[in-house]
Specification:
By secondary structure, this protein is α+β, with helices and mostly antiparallel strands. The chain is about 20% helix and about 35% strand. The chain is elongated and about 165 Å long. It holds the Pfam family V-set.
Length: about 325
Amino acid sequence: MKIFYLVLLFQASLQLECDKEITAHVGGEFILKCKYGINHFLYSKKYWCRGPSRSNCEIVADSENSRNTHRSQVIDLNRRGLFVKVTNLRFDDAGAYWVGIDKIYADIMTQVKVIITEVPVSKPRLWPLSSLVDRPTCWGKSVTLRCGCAKGTGVRYAWYQHIDRKDFLLHKSSDLYLHCGAVQKDCSYFCIGSNDISSEKSELISVQVLMPANSSCIYVVNIQGQPIYDCADRMSTTTVTTPTLTSCLVIMNISDNTRNQSLQLNETTQGFFFIRSLTGLPLWYILLRWSSFLALLIIICTAVKCTRRRYKKYANQKKNIHCRRIYHACQ
């Protein structure tokens, strides 16, 4: 009996040839091409059935369109071959199938194994949920970054921190929440999207810490494809601030005619030339500007005064000459 079964399989393999295994992605489609003996089975019905064995197989579609579904088709193109097309694949479509040809006494059948896998993930793209054009990080505000793959099914996301040439897993999520407490020093972040069959890594996000959280919390986030910005103006108004006034007690002995007494003088030291006024400019700059203005004003006043003197002297000379002419004329 086993020998007879093997002979039937051998004859079937000669009369009907198909791929033994086909792999496709969920949501996609596949087309299985087969060859068969045109001289013997040109007008025979061909079918596509599902089941673990020849005797236990449920016909899904056939070449006469009597059992074709909206997802499965059997297309007989005669000499060009026999095609089985299945679309909109689902995970439950995986399993054992058979391609068969109607024949008296015993059909010609060959088994095909269908494997359905996840769609491979594409390279993750990174973007902020709020715009970076307003530079919120320059004022220590938090930023949420999102990781997403344009292609892929069943994608799982994980965020990593790259620091000191090492990668550390932060959490498994599509979002990364950056805030002053989490950003301590310069580092990079990246996201990995993966499923059961593939894995892809995103571009690096560069985070530069200009001032730590215990100061004013200023940091810059650079993402490829996003606007590039800096916090130079914020740094210029933050780094040169009014220095902390430091007080020291200096004890001075003052001699009097009647008695000696010790006085405690509270001396305040501060960077005078770096004190900022209400306008945010250093005091030395304001003094220099007003001094220049005052010098220019003095020069202008002097020039005007000299001009008036010259004009007055010239007028007196002209008047004297006129008087002399009149005097000579009278003589």
